[in-house]
Structure formats: C-alpha cells, structure tokens
C-alpha cells in the first residue's frame, strides 16, 4: 500500500498519517479535501478508487481482527462511500463486508454534495439500510469526528441488542408485531387528535400572534432515534430571539454543571424569555401539540425519549449515555411522568430513565406511560 501526502491521483489504494491509531476508509473518486481535513484532527485515511479495492482492504482488516468480542477495538473508525456509485453496487459491497462480525459495528456514511438533490439522497438512504448517516463532503471535520464517535457507540450497543435492529432478520416476530402495533397506534391517535383539536390549535395560533411578534411555531433541529436529525415543531412560547439569549442566562440553568464532560441539559425556572401566553401553554403542555405532525411523519412516536437539541445531544456520545438514542423520540415518556413526582431530578437520573426505557420498552409499557401522562400534567410544576 503506497504512502503519500500530496494526494496526486494514481491507481490503487493509498494511505496517509501512518502514525495515527484512528483510520477511516473512503471509497470513491479522489476527494483529497475530505481526507486532508480528517488528517488534520488525527485520522489516518485510506482511499480506494472503487468498491472492489475497498472491499479487499476491509476484508484484510477483518482477517487481522477475527475476534468478535474485541470488534470495537479495531483501528478502523469509519467507512465513507461516495453516492456516485450505483446503488446496487453499494448494497452488495456493504452486504459483503458485514459478513465479518468485526466490521458490523464500524459506522458507514454516504458522502453527498450540495449538488445532489434531496430526492436522490432520500432514494439512496431509504434503500441502503446499512448507512448510518449522510455526510456532506464540505462538512466541518469536528462535526464528522463527532458523528464517527457517536455511531461507533451506537452500533456497538445495537450489536449487543439485535432486537433493536428493526428490519434485521434477527428480530423476532413478536418484536415485529410490537413495532407494527406501535406505529399504527401512533398514526391513528395522532391523526384523530389533530382532527378533534384543530379549532383549539387555531385559537392558540391567534393568541400567540396577538401576544408577541414572531412566528406561531418554533421549529428547530432535534436528535431522535439513532441521532437522526429532524425538524421539531412546537408552539412558540418564548420571545423571537430566545436562542441568542441562552448564553446570557446560562447561570440560571437548573442543570448547570462545571464539568465539560458531563451531559448538558437546559431547564430554567421562571425563564425570562417565556411570553405570557407561553407560560400558560407550557403549564398545560399545549405547546407540545404540533409534535403530532412529527408523529405522523415518523420523526417521533407518542411515547419515547425526548428529542434533544443538538447542543444537548452532543454531550451524550459516550458508552454510558448514547444508549438513550436506541429508543424513538417521543412526545411523552418515562422521564416526563416521573419528574412530576421528583422535580429536582439530576442529569444522571434523567439520563438513566431514558436508558432504562430504551432498553426495556414495549407496546404495553408505552400504553401505560401514555395513560399516566394526563395525571403528570396535572401535577406539573409551575414554571
């Protein structure tokens, strides 16, 4: 294997930064910019111009690390595959390498560009289940590094719990039925509630517009199951520039922690950014109603773990915490019905509840949580 640093185009497999213990493999036409950026933050890169060469290199790595128990200890950190390969070739390539146990937990990313249409991206993503996530070729290297670390942990947990890999042949018929019931239940209930509550939704929208300037809905990116990002909908309960004021009131955060490595959540009592109508909506949880659209779209479920803002989710990428992302995002969940009894819950207690739900959830427990939610709302602390 030729070692090079200039990234001049030539045939075969190439590598750089021989001294690094973190290795990524890129399969596709020459893209030195991506490899250079990752090299700058400590990664070793292997570039294979076609999938055949990439397959041979990965099989060599797999043969050198035959012990499945130590699969997470191999030096290969991630696999990047260019979107310009035919979709069937990518599927065959990933099927071949995942026959080796030590490669099943290695994150796989599809490299796309802004020239690729959303329709094309969704087409590839929906037909290649082995893909963990999409990476834009011009992404910030630290964002790529974060995603690599997260999916390493996530795939390792998923490998330990095959029942969580929906769509896999290892899932039993009972789990499949449980999932189908949950999805049908989500769509049915969410659609019925939207239809019945449509007059109330219109009244809330009018009240928000009259109370303060700004949009009716608050839309933000949230991290859900598998750290998938989606547009999250709520009725706006804060002033228009609330996000910009967050740093100014950080000391008021109930979950404020001095340790950088601790998980980060934001909960501010008597938040000065909340509007008058916003306080009423929050106290009655009516601000959550637009999330029914997220449920119908499949971004969320009625019951699950709370979808987290990116600044919170990025602190939960260790083995200890990332298990919470195995579960779907939900409007209500175990944490929500528990906090009414214990409002001063610590970050660790909250995250433990998320992990407990993620690893033990089933349709029956979801129904129990759902029916407990109205009682939790009645007992909800005053903000």
TrEMBL record:
Key words, A-Z: Membrane, Transferase, Transmembrane, Transmembrane helix
Presence of keyword Transferase: yes
| MF terms in GO | phosphotransferase activity, for other substituted phosphate groups
Q: Which InterPro entries match?
A: Bact_transf
Which positions, given as ranges, span the membrane?
184-208
All copies of the Bacterial sugar transferase domain together span: 182-378
Q: Name one Pfam family in it.
A: Bac_transf
Organism's domain of life?
Bacteria
For the keyword Transmembrane, the answer is yes
The UniProt entry, under PANTHER family, shows: COLANIC BIOSYNTHESIS UDP-GLUCOSE LIPID CARRIER TRANSFERASE (PTHR30576), UNDECAPRENYL-PHOSPHATE N-ACETYLGALACTOSAMINYL 1-PHOSPHATE TRANSFERASE-RELATED (PTHR30576:SF0)
Q: Which family does it belong to?
A: Belongs to the bacterial sugar transferase family.
| Protein name from the UniProt record | Lipopolysaccharide/colanic/teichoic acid biosynthesis glycosyltransferase
């Amino acid at each position: 294997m030729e070692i090079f640093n200039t990234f001049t185009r030539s045939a075969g497999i190439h590598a750089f930064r021989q001294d690094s213990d973190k290795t990524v493999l890129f399969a596709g036409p020459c893209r030195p910019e991506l490899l250079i950026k990752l090299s700058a933050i400590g990664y070793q890169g292997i570039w294979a111009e076609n999938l055949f060469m990439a397959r041979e290199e990965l099989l060599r790595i797999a043969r050198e690390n035959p012990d499945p128990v130590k699969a997470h200890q191999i030096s290969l950190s991630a696999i990047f595959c260019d979107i310009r390969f035919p979709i069937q070739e990518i599927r065959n390539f990933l099927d071949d390498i995942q026959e080796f146990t030590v490669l099943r937990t290695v994150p796989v990313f599809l490299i796309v560009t802004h020239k690729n249409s959303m329709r094309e991206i969704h087409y590839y993503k929906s037909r290649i289940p082995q893909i963990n996530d999409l990476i834009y070729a011009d992404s910030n290297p630290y964002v790529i590094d974060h995603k690599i670390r997260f999916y390493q942990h996530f795939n390792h947990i998923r490998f330990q719990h095959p029942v969580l890999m929906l769509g896999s042949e290892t899932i039993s018929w009972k789990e499949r039925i449980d999932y189908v019931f949950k999805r049908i239940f989500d769509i049915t209930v969410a659609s019925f509630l939207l239809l019945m509550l449509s007059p109330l939704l219109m009244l809330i929208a009018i009240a928000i517009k009259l109370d303060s300037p700004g949009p009716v809905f608050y839309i933000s990116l949230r991290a859900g199951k598998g750290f998938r990002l989606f547009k999250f909908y709520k009725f706006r309960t804060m002033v228009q520039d609330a996000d910009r004021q967050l740093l100014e009131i950080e000391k008021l955060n109930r979950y404020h922690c001095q340790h950088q490595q601790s998980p980060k959540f934001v909960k501010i009592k008597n938040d000065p950014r909340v509007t008058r109508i916003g306080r009423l909506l929050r106290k009655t949880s009516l601000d959550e109603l637009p999330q029914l659209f997220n449920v119908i779209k499949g971004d969320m479920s009625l019951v699950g773990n709370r979808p987290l803002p990116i600044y919170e989710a990025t602190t939960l990428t260790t083995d200890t915490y990332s298990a919470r992302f195995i579960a779907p995002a939900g409007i209500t969940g175990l944490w929500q019905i528990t906090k009414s009894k214990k409002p001063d819950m610590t970050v660790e207690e909250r995250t433990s509840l998320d992990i407990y739900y993620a690893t033990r959830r089933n349709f029956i427990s979801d129904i129990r949580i759902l029916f407990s939610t109205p009682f939790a709302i009645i007992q909800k602390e005053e903000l």
